[in-house]
Design a protein that fits this description.
The protein is 17% helix and 44% strand. It is of the alpha+beta class. The strands form three sheets. Strands 7-8-9-12-14-15 form a six-stranded mixed β-sheet. It has a five-stranded mixed β-barrel with strand order 1-2-3-5-4. A three-stranded mixed β-sheet has the order 10-11-13.
Length: 230
């Protein structure tokens, strides 16, 4: 997953969850933040950030803020659309006959519907929900960084899909180098932790997809299975 252009800037402040004030070459610029999460431990005044310029006509802001370097020196991609883009590229090399993004199942839109042995008598059907992890503490990833009722709903849908005979997968894309595990952030959203435990018990597969992050790209480079799953 690669951006066509990238510009370095210095973060100054975030008036609301949609925009940020940055400095480019000594000039102030208002930019769009491609992540509505809190990112409080990342977006600190004076930190190094990277922007892209999509060039969409009629935009109020020229740039999107997509990456930030944390105080510990680790580069984080915080673009909330990047995980699905990276996963789609990765899935194309995983031997599936069909990869369908944004698949409606039940009352939810699940990120990917997948098939193997599509032309056979008994095709294998998969549903995969993708969550991007941008919160890290002591080498461990945590999700979510803000309450997400939508995330809980998706997990419940995966449990129902598993009961209906699908291979159900909850995949966390870790948007930084050096982290191989994601735990539920029960302090922020205890219901998400409960739903994740129920998914484990129901046989939903939980994957941790590690990434290599550069200012202009993010690539999935490893896969780890949740050891707590059955």
């Amino acid at each position: 997953m690669k951006y066509e252009n990238i510009t370095r800037a210095v973060f100054r402040n975030r008036p609301n969850r949609f925009i940020a004030e940055v400095e480019i070459g000594g000039q102030k610029e208002i930019v769009h933040v491609k992540n509505t999460g809190r990112c409080r431990e990342l977006l600190i005044p004076g930190c190094e950030v990277w922007l892209t310029a999509p060039g969409t006509p009629g935009r109020k802001t020229k740039f999107d803020l997509v990456a930030v370097r944390k105080r510990n020196g680790v580069l984080f991609n915080i673009d909330s659309q990047a995980p699905n883009r990276a996963v789609k590229e990765w899935l194309e090399d995983q031997g599936f006959d069909r990869v369908v993004p944004e698949y409606t199942y039940g009352d939810s839109r699940i990120d990917f519907y997948l098939e193997k042995n599509a032309g056979g008598e008994f095709p294998e059907r998969y549903l995969m929900e993708v969550k991007g992890c941008t919160l890290e503490a002591d080498g461990v990833g945590y999700f979510p960084d803000a309450p997400t009722e939508r995330g809980v709903k998706h997990i419940r849908e995966l449990i129902r899909a598993k009961e209906a005979g699908y291979h159900a997968i909850l995949a966390f894309v870790i948007q930084m180098d050096g982290v191989k595990e994601v735990r539920p952030n029960t302090e922020t959203h205890p219901q998400f932790g409960t739903a994740m435990e129920e998914a484990r018990a129901a046989g939903v597969e939980i994957l941790f997809l590690t990434c290599h992050v550069e200012p202009d790209r993010m690539t999935i480079n490893g896969i780890y299975h949740d050891k707590k799953c059955k």
